[in-house]
Amino acid sequence: MFNAQYFRTFMMLVETGSFTQTARKLEMTQPGVSQHVRKLEESVDRPLINRHGRRFSLTEAGRRTYDYAVKLFAEHEQFRHSLDDDSTDSGECRIASPGSVGLMFYPFLLGYQQMYPGLTIHYSFAFNRDITQEVAAGRLDVGIATDEAKHAELDCQSWYQEPLCVVVPADFTGTSFGELLALGFVDYIDGEANASRVFKQNFAGEFRGMNRFPRRGFTNEVGQVLDAVARGLGFTVVPRPVLETSPWQRQVKELSLDQPVYETLYLIARRDATLPKRYRQLLDTFRQQRLNSLYGYSELPTLEET
Questions:
Q1: Pairing between β-strand 91-97 and β-strand 49-52 as defined by DSSP bridges
Q2: What is the pLDDT of residue 83?
Q3: Which residues, 6+ apart, have CB-to-CB distance to 197 below 8 Å?
Q4: CA dihedral over 238, 240, 245, 250, signed as positive or negative
Q5: Residue 263 φ/ψ, nearest 5 degrees
Q6: Torsion 63-64-67-73 (CA) sign
Q7: Is 289 helix (H, G, I), strand (E, B) or coil?
Q8: Do residue 103 and residue 223 come from a single domain?
Q9: Distance from C-alpha of 116 to C-alpha of 278, rounded to nearest angstrom
């Protein structure tokens, strides 16, 4: 029969190397420690230690049992912290976003977890529709999406906005709509929609739809689209994080726009769930950093205030 206390006693015995110290730390008697070890040996049907007078050595089964005990109690501690909604620096976080956001958000999450080792972050790159489905099913706690989710069981709130950037090869000298038209468009998921929004605002008199633009290629991985632009194959329109995190920044450039256009990011969560504080602090920290980087200040309330 499984008994967690037997495993705890055995783990302490291995770590102290002494029946006496184990008994003292666990406030037990030495015979009680010996009894726990014997009971554990009976439960696994293997000898765990070889006794040498007052000393002992581990058998192979003993070493494997100790490794299992360490993992067992580490997972138990992690599970216990995950139930603590008041903790800001421990527990599990399950989040997803599209790639255009994740290129910047995921590295932030890794650095954040380094600062708070008690957190375990499970992050997925996913499309908007999949994020909505996963949050609704309870497999994700938070989704970050570029489209507003319309679902009876979900709460969707505006988080902040990222500028959309027209990105051309570094040696491109044109500025007009016609010159962009001649260059051709490199597409990706959401590429056409983003480009249409930019052109409607900045070239309203000339823009008649994306079907006029020669297609120079397509990729479903937004992080790779600037590779094609860097090679001179065409231009594209991407959210700012894609440009800021791109390894091809030196081979491309951003065209200035008379009318800046923004992509709104939305936070999605279940209506019947209250986000633990660890989520609120994590998300607020990223947003504050991003707004300070883009605008020099924060212009939105924190999640605590909404």
A1: unpaired
A2: 64
A3: 164, 261
A4: positive
A5: -105, 125
A6: negative
A7: helix
A8: yes
A9: 10
Tokens of 149: 């989710």
At 100-144, the pLDDT tens digits run 999 999 999 999 999 999 899 999 999 999 999 999 988 899 999
CATH of the domain at 70: 1.10.10.10
The pair of structure tokens assigned to 211 is 């079907």
Query: Please, what's the b/e burial string for 33-68 (b: 16 or more CB within 10 A of its CB; e: otherwise)?
Result: bbebbeebbeeeeeebbeeeeeebebeeebeebbee
User: Rounded to the nearest 10 degrees, what angle do helices 277-295 and 99-115 cross at?
Assistant: 120
Closest Cα partner for 23 from 44, 2, 37, 3?
37
| pTM of the complete model | 0.71
- The tens digit of pLDDT for each residue in 24-65 reads 989 999 999 999 999 999 999 999 999 888 789 999 999 999
Torsion angle (degrees, nearest 10) of CA 265, 202, 180, 192: 40
User: 215-219 and 185-188: which strand pairing?
Assistant: parallel
Range of the domain at 57: 4-82
**Gap between the Cα atoms of 147 and 123, Å rounded:** 19
Claim to verify: residue 67 and residue 153 sit in the same structural domain: no
